[in-house]
Amino acid sequence: MNEATQQTPVLEARNIGKSLGGRPILSDLSLSVYKGEMKVLIGPSGAGKSTFLQCLNHLITPDTGELLLNGERISPANKGELRSLRERVGMIFQDFNLFDHLTAQENVSIALVKVKKMSRRDASLRAMMELERVGLSRRAGLYPAELSGGQKQRVAIARALAMDPEVILLDEPTSALDPELVGEVLAAIRELARGGMTMIMATHQMDFARALATEILFMEKGAIIERGAPASLLAPGAKTRTQAFFARLVAEESAC
Amino acid sequence: MQESILTICEAMPWILEGALITIGTVAAAMLLGLFLGVPMAIGQIYGNAATRGVIALYVWFFRGVPILVLLYLFYFGLVYQLNPLEFSLFGMQCSISLALSPFAASCIVLGLTSAAYQSQIFRGAINSLPSGQLKAARALGMRDFEAIASIILPQALRLSIPGWSNEYSILLKDSALVSVLGAMELMARTKAVATSTAEYTAFYVSAALLYFLITWIGLRGLRYAEKNFRIPGYSHL
User: Fold this and answer.
1) For tag attachment on chain A, is the N or C end more exposed, with fewer CB atoms within 10 Å?
2) Is B75 left (phi over 0), alpha (psi -120 to 50) or beta?
């Protein structure tokens, strides 16, 4: 985060807009993330957080706006540029999306072989290293169905890390997990942040956001309606939407 | 009675040879159906409107016309009537021989028909996979064909085995129809022997048993494949 002073953002989105069936679902979203920063997207379900994240690596094609990776404009119409964008921008999904027919190790190594054209041997070694990093080297030979949710998500993190991404997008990485498994995944993400990884994360984990976010972006109805450092948005007594949303989440949790 | 048994024993080697031809026909048709059916399924899901339209038309045609009609149409209406195919190209007289053995013609017709059915088995299997699989592959920078080849198909083909077993047992029984082209497979040979010896019951029962046996062995094999390729931890894959 101390490197955030660097001039060019790692990833910059300008005026991203998207409509579905004539109904706008994202309107005019802009965001710049600098090296080592963690931007956190907060907001109610249906606010467009996930859609916005998927626009950032063109899993969803936005109708308007542009993307810049290290200051270079990406033309997603060019398939080569699109693939290179995706190779350099990692993604962690809410429901893991591990390849079900491959072992944990193969899940991590397959893109190294297919995309980075590494030899199988080197790819396996690299995969082992990344699994070690998330504490799963002893589970390398297991299939996704044999892993817990938390372990699956850690394999997914290892899979993204193996590609040496410049920025990682995390789409509610803990939302599909049983409460007791959330901690291990957050710990892995915290470790990444500590290592200076640049990240954009959608989450409902407000304590996590408060502790680690460089900036919080509060989204509602496809627009960013509030943004700022957690210290100001979540300051005690701050009359912000973010604060109100946070208070409601806490109230709901304690009501259970 | 003793006489019948003797007649059957005498004719059996020839009939068993016919059973081998039946197995060969079905195997060839299944493989042709597989090699056409997989790309057709992929085209129908990921292709553009024109591709999807052409494939839908193909499937509609082959599912809509009885195999018996297709066999006659292909063998007599196409291969026999148009052979040799003569035309002139840039002033040169060309002649292409369309001569096909009844066996080859049968394999082609059954294979093309099976492709229509198999494509729908694979299409269903691919569609039943969570959309996140392709998304995750794309997010890693894989080309679509790489993602389909190394992520989608390995899973979809596993899911297709039960449907494929069905197709195998149906195709095996449909293969009895090719006797009308004069392909000397199990059915044609049984009929020939039964008619010439007038031992109808004995020979048709033995043919039925042979079909039953071939079905059973094939289904056992596919069941084994299904278990063997099962993904650990999954009950349905």
Assistant:
1) C
2) alpha
Residue A155 to residue A140: CA distance in whole angstroms: 9
Judge: A143–B234 Cβ closer than 8 Å, yes or no.
yes
* B157-193 pLDDT tens trace: 999 999 999 999 999 999 999 999 989 999 999 999 9
Of B113, B139, B146, nearest to B42 (Cα)? B146
Domains of chain B, residue spans: 2-228
> Which chain B residue's Cα is nearest to A165?
B140
Does A143 contact B130 at a Cβ distance shorter than 8 Å? no
**Which among A97, A99, A146 has CB closest to B233?**
A146
- In three-state secondary structure terms, A89 is strand
| Interface contact B139-A100, CB threshold 8 A | no
Listing DSSP states for A141-169 in one string gives: T--GGGS-HHHHHHHHHHHHHHT--SEEE
Q: A236 vs A63, which has greater pLDDT?
A: A63
A95 chain-B contacts, CB cut-off 8 A = 130, 132
Nearest residue on chain B to A55, alpha-carbon basis: B139
* Residue A81: closest C-alpha in chain B: B141
Q: Chain B: give the shortest CA distance to residue A244, in Å.
A: 33
Mean model confidence pLDDT for chain B? 92
Tell me: pLDDT of A143 over 50: yes
Is the pLDDT assigned to residue A4 strictly greater than 50?
no
Contact B151/A91, CB-based, under 8 Å? Answer: no
| Tally of domains in chain A | 1
Distance (Å, rounded) from C-alpha A54 to C-alpha A43? 16
Query: What CATH number is given for B2-228 in this structure?
Result: 1.10.3720.10
Q: What is the CATH number of the domain that holds A100?
A: 3.40.50.300
Question: How far does the CA of residue A85 sit from the closest CA of chain B (Å)?
Answer: 8
**Which residue range forms the structural domain that includes residue A191?**
2-255
Written as one string, the DSSP assignment of A164-199 is --SEEEEESTTTTS-HHHHHHHHHHHHHHHHTT--E
What average pLDDT does chain A have?
Answer: 92
- For the stretch B53-79, what's the b/e string if a residue is b when 16 or more beta carbons lie within 10 angstroms of its beta carbon? eebeebbeebeeeebeebbbebbeeeb
